[in-house]
Amino acid sequence: MSGQELCERLGVSRTAIWKIVGQLKEEGYQIEAVKNRGYHMLFIPDVITEAEIGSRLNTKVMGRSCVCYEETDSTNIRAKKLAEEDKPHGTLVCAEKQTGGKGRRGRAWSSPSGEAIYMSLLLRPQIQPVHASMLTLVMGLAAAEACNEVLGEAMGEKSLKVQIKWPNDLVLDGKKIAGILTEMSVEMEYIHYVVIGIGINVNTKSFPGELEKTAGSLYQTAGRSFARADLIARCMKCFEKYYEIFCRTENFSVLKKSYGDFLVNTGKMVRVLEPGNEYTGTALGINDSGELLVEREEGQVVAVYAGEVSVRGVYGYV
Ligand code: BTN
Q1: Do 61 and 190 lie in a common domain?
Q2: 63 Cβ inside 6 Å of ligand 1
Q3: Do residues 150 and 298 both lie within one domain?
Q4: Mutate-to-test residue for ligand 1 from 76, 119, 196, highest number of ligand atoms within 8 A of CB
């Protein structure tokens, strides 16, 4: 594109264009400047910035307000802080690297730079607090759909599918590729805010130590890298769609079918680890409250609530 056209489109001077091109080059963009012809963008780096996400975003609310960090302690912590500072519903917080990434049950979430997605979405839902934990399932559903879109485009029809291990792990080829941590601030009957944090192993080539056995990535299955900002924008799009449906009913009556299509547990033997109560059964699917229905060995069907429960595959992680 000619310098002239860039100036006209953006309403800035030639000097401003020249400065910004210099800045972009420092960020890793390759831009060729040809005398009397203009600028040619040769390479867009896989960076997570407000500009890269914003230019791909196709939503009304989700991610429209966006804050990206090169490095931070935890995007969940940042999102909660921003919530206290009155940032709007739908604010997205991302980081290239987390120094204190948090997993469920007080565990750490390994968060090296440049290969994965670490993001948290701030929501101010006007729903009953007891229904808010189901939002984790909504994010799982949205992220699974978005991951499958990019995987399908890369590998074609025969691509392996990203599935959901209830309640909130994404699995691919028998390994965990994403986890979700939801935190909220609730007062009596009122939700101040909900923060849904998700970590997705996108372009991770290998994992340290013991993690290698259970963790996987889109890259490891597809054998190629993915533009992380594009995947973030797709997650936001899918989440917005499912969030609207969820808020109308405050349950999974409408989403149950879509969620079930991704559910890896269905028909499999699972071991339910409730505090003080452990049992084995066959997972049947989820009910309208997002609980996992498990048929116990003696034939009784129980609904398992996500809260304190851990569900393990009897024959391995899934
Ligand atoms: C799990 O244990 O499976 C949940 C992992 C959640 C990790 C994500 S990464 C982005 C957000 N920030 C955090 O500190 N944790 C979540």
Answers
A1: yes
A2: no
A3: no
A4: 76
Asked if the structure places residue 11 within a domain, the reply is yes
Predicted confidence (pLDDT) at residue 12 exceeds the cutoff of 70? yes
Q: Which structural domain range is residue 295 located in?
A: 265-311
Can you give the pLDDT at residue 318? Answer: 65
Confidence of residue 91 (pLDDT cuts 50, 70, 90): very high
Same domain, 251 and 269: no
Report CA(120)–ligand 1 centroid distance (Å).
Answer: 8
Q: Is the pTM of this model over 0.85?
A: yes
- Cα of 170 vs centre of ligand 1, distance in Å, is 12
Asked if the structure places residue 109 within a domain, the reply is yes
Are both 152 and 223 inside the same structural domain?
yes
Q: How many A from CA of 126 to the centre of ligand 1?
A: 24
**Is 228 found in the same domain as 108?**
yes
Answer yes or no: do 236 and 300 share one domain.
no
Residue 166's pLDDT band (cuts 50, 70, 90): very high
How far apart CA 174 and CA 177 sit, in angstroms, is: 9
What value does the mean pLDDT take over residues 240-256? 97
Mean pLDDT of all residues in the chain? 94
Q: Are 200 and 96 members of one domain? A: yes
Q: Tell me the mean pLDDT in the region 199-209.
A: 96
Count of domains in the chain? 3
